[in-house]
Amino acid sequence: MSEPLPQHLGHGIHTIPAPLPFPSPRWVNVYVIERPDGLTMIDCGVDWEPGRDALLKGFALLGLDPGSVDTLVVSHLHPDHVGMAPRLVAEWGCQVVMHRRAATLYERYNDTAGFERWLFDLARRHGVPPEFQDQIGSIGPRPDFMPPIGPPDLVVDDGDHIDLGGGRSLEVLHTPGHEPSHICLRDSLTGILFSGDHVLGRITPVIMYDAATDDALGDYLAALRRLLAAEIGLTYPAHGRIVERGSARVSQILLHHERRLAGMEEVVRLGPATAWRVMGQVFRPHLSAMEKRLALRETVAHLEHLRILTRLASFEEDEVVWYRVP
Ligand SMILES: [Zn+2]
């Protein structure tokens, strides 16, 4: 995919793609909305030079003054969305707006060592053989592009409206699943949905088992169904291209998870299995360490959802969790 360019999207909405230091996704779409008295920005990318350059060049190209950004709304607590926030607060003096859950979860975002311990524990509990535990658990030193963040200056709840002036606002939809504090924002003027990572055009966001919720996948599917009921049209995602028919894409993502759930259930029908074993049957082989880590968390999220639905049951043996048919 060729490098996307900063664009005016109409109705005072602009997008600036900021490059990311990952193989995928390679950009995050930063959105800037003009208000009568300033600019509101949605997400900001990681804190590295190519991202900072892209933002500043994008503002210049679009004829916008970065100094007018007084509000940064962050869709969720992942570095490609919140990473640059401390710098923008320091340099531009903007306030950071996030969902209420981010007010406590930001401490976890800052705790690299704690996350690593949790991953090792997850690997052991879910049957990862000792020779692979390091690949799942070792995440290495904290990258410079994700400096520690502070709590949000302003917290919002589901149903709140973030004022854009002139009678226009962004309605907050709490859409946990990809991350517990995830929000989507619906523009009252155009009905456009800023979907963060909740709804993406060509990839399905990874839904990871998370200590902060019993059922990350259940949360995610419920939030998708709510969007379906709200009849979403034009959708501006945080990665990739604009989605014209949001509801149609939501239906596809729901189907993807239905299939994946059925696939995992089928593996367990053949005999009790750990998440590690199910993962080996459902995901393609030769995953990188990072892909293995995500695949394991995604597998546990699906198996736990099946257990909560009582489509599966689980038992423990030597502190390892096994799934079986009920
Ligand atoms: Zn993202």
Structural overview:
The protein has 326 residues and is α/β, with parallel strands linked by helices. The protein has a single domain, classed as Ribonuclease Z/Hydroxyacylglutathione hydrolase-like (Metallo-beta-lactamase, Chain A), CATH 3.60.15.10. 37% of the residues lie in helices and 22% in strands. It contains 10 helices and 14 strands. The protein has a 7-stranded mixed β-sheet with strand order 1-2-3-4-5-6-7, with helices on one face. Strand 8 and strand 9 form a beta hairpin. Helix 8 packs across helix 10. The chain is globular, with a radius of gyration of 20 Å. The termini are far apart. The relative contact order is 0.12. The model has no long low-confidence stretch (mean pLDDT 96). The structure holds zinc ion (ZN). Zinc ion binds next to helix 2. The site of zinc ion has 7 residues, from helix 2.
